[in-house]
Amino acid sequence: MVVAEVIHETADAKSFVLDVPDALSEDFSYRAGQFLTFRVELDGVAHLRPYSMSSSPLLDQRPRVTVKRVPGGVVSNWMNDALAPGDEIAVSVPAGTFVVGGPGGEIVAFAGGSGITPVLSIVRTVLAGRDRPVRLLYANRDPSSAIFRSELEELARGSAGRLAVTFHDDSERGILTPETAREFAAAATGEFFVCGPEPFMDCVLDALADAGVPEARIRLERFTPAPPAEAEAEADAGPSVRAPVQVSFRLGHRRVSGEARPGATLLQSARALGLRAPASCESGSCATCMARIVEGSARMRENEALTSDEVAEGWVLTCQAVPTSPSVRVVYE
Length: 333
Ligand SMILES: Cc1cc2nc3c(=O)[nH]c(=O)nc-3n(C[C@H](O)[C@H](O)[C@H](O)COP(=O)(O)OP(=O)(O)OC[C@H]3O[C@@H](n4cnc5c(N)ncnc54)[C@H](O)[C@@H]3O)c2cc1C
Ligand code: FES
What we know:
24% of the residues lie in helices and 32% in strands. It is α/β, with parallel strands linked by helices and 333 residues long. A five-stranded parallel beta sheet has the order 9-8-7-10-11, sandwiched between helices. Helix 2 (116-129) links the parallel strand 7 (107-112) and strand 8. The longest helix is centred in the middle third of the chain and has 14 residues, at 116-129. The protein starts with a strand and ends with a strand. The chain binds flavin-adenine dinucleotide and FE2/S2 (inorganic) cluster. Flavin-adenine dinucleotide binds at residues 35, 49-52, 65-68, 70, 72-77, 96, 114, 117, 221, 223-224, 281, 285-286. InterPro entries: 2Fe-2S_ferredoxin-like_sf, 2Fe-2S_ferredoxin-type, 2Fe2S_fd_BS, Beta-grasp_dom_sf, Cbr1-like_FAD-bd_dom, FAD-bd_FR_type, FNR_nucleotide-bd, MRET.
């Protein structure tokens, strides 16, 4: 892709509008809330990072991502400091399950900091295309760090009452408490979307659990992986198969099968068998690697992307799934 435009949003965030070549426009069609994975090579080292689109597939001609600096972060700072209009950048096709698709009713969204990017896309798309009302709680350190603040205020003014935004600024009200989140969620019957820093997400999820919101109605997007120590401890506790496992994979017309290394994830096994299996974050957050187990079973070390209904239907995140049966058959759909 070529970077068509760079927009200065706040002191530590910029948006990048991308030019999609005509020949690739179908491949790059996306749903509101999805992300693109960027491949950035710096000093000979390749880094893969997912960035959610803040643009709306219904309203904007070109996709736009918005990147906030992470202190000490390799790619977010490089993009903010160096990526300029006219530059070329390698980007993989859209992916992700943080999308609207539930039973209808109100959309209730909680966004913290850069978590506003996919949420803005969802809010604008829902307001443009459907009749559903939207309520958004948007938390930030202070008013100046709130990306898209004036755009959201304008959207709410022009929405004929369909969009209500509550800005929560830590500098004025302290960090968000579960009580405030619970009050905000009260009596909502539709779909819930939560995206933000870990403590913010934990606070909102506790509040939604207390308010009795079923897990199946909550969509999460985690920008940061769980600490590796936790994932490993959980993995060690589970009953993965220690003997060699027979695995087979189908991706489109390609089929591969063979013996997997004990303890290897399905993604690692697929790669070892020569399959170019899809993946992005490789930390259980993005669902790019999701596939369905049609025979056998596996246990996920981390799952921040699939709902319990999807898991019950046999979907797994292959980057996190370790076989728990002597043979496993996997289909990428
Ligand atoms: C599905 C998905 C969508 C995402 N969408 C966006 C988006 O729209 N906009 C956006 O700005 N970012 C988004 N991210 C986060 C982004 O992919 C990078 O993780 C982030 O920019 C940091 O990368 P880095 O190379 O700068 O930092 P790294 O060099 O990878 O990390 C440096 C340090 O910062 C920590 N860290 C990593 N990410 C974060 C974070 N988000 N907040 C706080 N600390 C962190 C790491 O644990 C590490 O210690 C998304 C992540 C996922 C999984
Ligand atoms: S690659 Fe992101 S969840 Fe597996």
